[in-house]
Amino acid sequence: MPSIAFTGGGTGGHIYPGLAVASRLEETLSCRIFWIGSSVGMDRSIVEDAGLPFFGIPSGKLRRYLSLHNLGDVFKVIMGFFAARRILKREKPALLFSKGGFVSVPPCAAARSLGIPVFTHESDYSPGLATRINSRFAERIFIPYKESARFFGPAGAKVRVSGNPIRKEFSAADPQKGRAFLGLGPEERVLLVLGGSQGSQEINGLVREALGELTRHYTVIHQTGETAGPAREEGSYKSYPYFKEEMAHVIAAAELVLCRSGAGTIWECKSLNKPIVLIPLRGSGTRGDQVENARIFEEAGAAISYTGDSAQDLARIINSLAEDSEKRLKMAEARIVEKAEALGIIIEEILERIGEKSHG
């Protein structure tokens, strides 16, 4: 029975798509799958909740700018390399699949040093620093959009357009189950607000300020993040710290979604044909990937991107869509990638590389 190693982490956006690939691989091939992630943070709990063995390694942040923190993090990266190398040498996987994030760089480098094939997937329009580094070690680089290939230069021959992997729960998403979880009736129109796994102060503030206008048409279901306090219910407003296994059902129950433009969230919403209003994370603390993701979706007609700071303007956009069913339908039907079959494409290539094509 072959073993396959997975790596990636730091945020749910790096982990959940990898878990989608792992789950489909387990359904397709009799194999042992394990995950290498950060020894601190959310990585372990998410992966172990999915039923996979988890090995933690030291993880240092990679920065494009000068910082005193760089010196300490360089040592963490080096320690992470040797820790990952020990794990890979002991577990002897046939292949390492990376979903990116800073923690993925040492395992990818370690796998390359041991002659273990490396595949990596980038979820965003442009690759982050970790994916740029990992592309040097990878035999295959999966990307979400054909336009993303231009960022890989000489490594372009390794690139294949796949779209983004979607968790299998989304193929069985049930709006009735979502409504039952939320305690809503069959006729209530739902605006779902998602600020990411850790919430968004910006979105939370805008929603609180615009709530009177947003509830003109909708019951507002708001994922606030676990640091924003306990669940709250007030009239046509319900807040929840974080959605877990019920997320797919909750999105299925929504008529409209307001969210950040992290790749995982927007692709999952699109897989359920939801019109989306995006408030991308932007500014000096980000490399601009969410702005790029939002632009791609807006240009395709699948979303509206809002980068202002006026709660009133945001409410006008939401209410305009609430009153325009034709516009919502067009957004729901808009295509992002001609053929987004990420799981099938990735699994096919993994099986071919490890000599298990006959199992596909």
What does this structure look like?
This protein is α/β, with parallel strands linked by helices. The protein has helices at 12-28, 43-49, 69-91, 105-113, 129-134, 175-182, 201-214, 247-253, 263-271, 289-299, 311-322, 325-333, 342-353; strands at 3-7, 32-38, 54-57, 95-98, 118-121, 140-143, 159-161, 190-194, 219-223, 232-234, 237-240, 256-259, 276-278, 303-305. A 7-stranded parallel β-sheet has the order 3-2-1-4-5-6-7, sandwiched between helices. Strands 10-11-9-8-12-13-14 form a 7-stranded mixed β-sheet, sandwiched between helices. Strand 8, helix 7 (201-214) and strand 9 (219-223) form a beta-alpha-beta unit. The protein is globular and about 60 Å long. The chain starts with a strand and ends in a 7-residue tail after the last helix.
Distance between the termini: 15 Å
> Which residue ranges are poorly predicted, with pLDDT under 50 across at least 5 consecutive positions?
none
Cα radius of gyration in angstroms:
21 Å
Pairing-aware structural class of the strands and helices? alpha/beta
Widest beta sheet: strand line-up: 3-2-1-4-5-6-7
Assembly state of the chains shown:
single chain
Which percent range describes the beta-strand content? 15-25%
Characterize the overall form.
globular
Number of helices: 13
Write the element-wise H/E pattern from the N-terminal end onward. Answer: EHEHEHEHEHEEHEHEEEHEHEHEHHH
Main beta sheet: 7 strands, parallel
- Helix content class: 40-55%
Mean of the pLDDT scores? Answer: 91
E-strand count: 14
